[in-house]
Amino acid sequence: MTDTKDNPGQVAAPLKRAIVAAVRGAWFLAPALILILALELVLRRAGEFAATAEVAESVTLESEPTLALRMILSQETPTYRLTQIQQRRPRFLVLGSSRVQRFRREMFCRSPHYGSFYNSSGTITGVGDLEVFLGSFPTDYAPEILLVGLDSWWLNSQTTDGTGRSLEIDTLRDRGLTLDSRLYAYGRLLRSITNGDLELGQLRRVLLGRDEGVRRYGLLAWVSRGFSNDGSLKVLSSETPDRYVDRERPPVVERVHEGTFQFVSTGGIDRERLSRLAQALEELGERGTEIVGWLPPYSTEVVSSIENTPVQKAYYSSFLDEMKRLFESRGWLLLEATSPVLFGLDDRAMEDGFHAMETFHVAALAHLGDDQVVSESLGLSPTCLREVLASEKTTHWYTDLERACECSTP
Amino acid sequence: MSFTSASFCALLGVTYLVYWGLGRRAQNVLLLAASYLFYSFWDWRFLSLILASSLTDYLVTRALAGTREPAARRGLLALSLMVNLGLLGFFKYFNFFVDSLETALSALGFVVPRLGLEIVLPVGISFYTFQTLGYTIDVYRGDVEARKSVLDVFVFVAFFPQLVAGPIERAGHLLPQFSSRRVFDEAQIADGARQMLWGFFKKIVIADNLAPYVNAAYGDVDGASGSQLVLATVLFAFQIYCDFSGYSDIGIGCARLLGIDLRPNFRLPYFAQSMSEFWRRWHISLSSWLTDYVYAPLTKVRLSWLGWRAKLLGCLFLTFLVSGLWHGAAWTFVAWGALHGSYLVASSLSSRWRRGVVARLRLDSFPGALAVARAGFVFVLVCISYVFFRADSLASAVQVFEKMLVDQDLRALLREALRLKALVAMLLLAEWLQRDRRHVLDLGELPLGAKVVAYNAVVLGIVVLGAFDFQPFIYFQF
Fold first, then answer.
1. Tens digit of pLDDT for each residue in A167-206?
2. Active site residue B439
3. Which of A93, A125, B18, B390 has the most CB atoms at less than 10 Å from its CB?
4. Which residues of chain A have pLDDT under 50?
5. Residues A154 and A23 in one domain
6. Does residue A233 belong to any structural domain of this protein?
7. What Å distances lie between residue B139 and B68, B127, B132, B134, B170, CA to CA?
8. Can you give the residue range of the structural domain that contains A196?
9. Nearest CB neighbour to B456, from listed A29, A179, A190
10. C-alpha–C-alpha distance, residues A314 and A307, integer Å
11. What is the spatial distance between Cα B278 and Cα B271, in angstroms, rounded to a whole number?
């Protein structure tokens, strides 16, 4: 034992012993600390702690190819999108839930706004979200064209509509600068490794920085998918399964059947939400934006389940009727793409019960683009899109999109 | 600044390293600066209250040391009581009493204007007020000598490891440690670090994982089933235990890193064999404070018309009412205190009868089973009281009891929240195995390799199993 003395000349010993004790404690916990250090390294190399706003500001249509999507910390998609919109002020804007995430810039090669396209999918879960999101646009900004994906549950009063949601994020937590966010990230990464969501080979690739010429922010962007420069979602795997499987958990068809999640049974259309939807779009229309509605597809399996469930059928038909009425009465375009069958496709063009793949979008636009008004509004070239579909490289899921713009070049 | 924040880790790390390089006075200056910095992270304006309490009690105790005149001494004590209880009363109880008065007058048909104020409760005020008051009372009684050093007294009141949620320390135990040289004892420091680690585990892994289930059930009593409310109440018992004892372990461990010994605050309360034993194991520093400064003086009040036993039981009941009010300015806490007071009164009145039953039925031939049954019975009583402690209002508590009685589904009760039940079972097993130790991670003579595995497992357990939407410590609100 050593006493601390009031005499400064004699106080060195306890300090030295305190430092030795701290080092000894760290040595005792070395296995855990080394593991935590390794987790920290993976997360840092993966860009998991890169600030949402900073990443959003650095990715543009012209910047090097990028994929951004976090896996461990919150993805903060609405904030990421909004920052990009504020930064880029796109003239052609796609807006909606994850069901419009595969609209790509190349699909609209002839649009005068081709060079200012942005897909802001994954942001809107309901009318409240739409209001908040549009209300957060800079006052002097409105896109020339808004392609808005309209999900049937937006007018279901039994589902959340995101009213009052804040787009502000806790920047300390977003960057992993708080103790809780850091420890949370380590724990979640460790669990992802132990339960097989992440393979050691993938982690090695992250640690070695093998990014294949694509700048990546976030672990998902390294291992499976991420938002590309035009905002659309890119999936790293190019495999196309031979048969359709609903990959959502629980499957969409089960949700419809049981009346859960987005398909909770309801008495009918929520008029108040309908009126708020109309008002939000009208306000944008009054600022010079051309509104184009998109009714995204369900797999034929899900459509059939809706048809066979009286409550769901009644609600979905009223939803479609109301959307047609709303868009027609205001002279806005409404693109009905409610099933793959409409465009000569089957469920293999779907990733799951309600997410269509890239090929579906190309086929739908080629088909709908036969209408001159549609093709001129959106800058479509149906002939080129059909060439893309006919390409050998095109599968049920992916298309040879490079051809779309080559074909369009005069 | 919470114990579970990066800023606290930084503060403790810097304080620890600088502290052991300083002499005694400089150590106290550092502790005072660190304590005020720690507190000002919540709200620096409320530092003025700590300063006011500290200064008042320093001056009062100095004056007490200078006079033997009984009237003057009583006056000085009254001054300290007025200042300290006045601050506590205003910040904690003003709205409670005003609202209760308004409700009572409205019920009698009077039209009363709204008198309540927007008052923010300063963190830890109940804890440091009792601590500093205890010092003055001890000096008044002659149990403790009044300190000349203003620095020592100010550090005693504001010492950051126990400032905002205890343990409520006694001047006779803590003050001499600030007045003397700190001893660097590596074994104590290492054990302090282990105690902190176990405290973090209890808070982050157990309490914070149990919190969402409890909050969901008590936040929607209408929607929760009776079984869910029973389970939520049992889980709350462990949530509040791990939350508060976890905080105490972190605080005590942290103080040990600085060579300061704080008294234990919990000793396996859910293994208690009787209600009185429960209170000797639960929040020990508050129980002993109330015994010495509320119960003992009350028993000295002359009430010759009342038999001695009735008087003692009445004093006991009143002390628990005070304890309830200390916990929170709400009728639910008063009911909780009254219930515990009633338990102890009933326990005292029935003790001979209970001993007789045990003897007649020869239950003491099965000591193990009897101990489990007794602990189970005490736990049930404690859980019943927790309904009042956790419910938002008396009406809500009554609703919880109604649902518990009529809406039971044993199968659902067994099936739900298996992960949470496993955490609780693990806690009980670990505490039982280590019941003779200072804390669970005091592994004594185990081989070094086994200790390394255990400590690393706890660290990784916190990382993997922890709930990281850090819930504030429950006792901060008191």
1. 888 888 888 888 888 999 999 999 999 999 999 999 999 9
2. no
3. A93
4. 1-6, 9, 410
5. no
6. no
7. 12, 19, 11, 9, 11
8. 17-76+169-218
9. A29
10. 9
11. 8
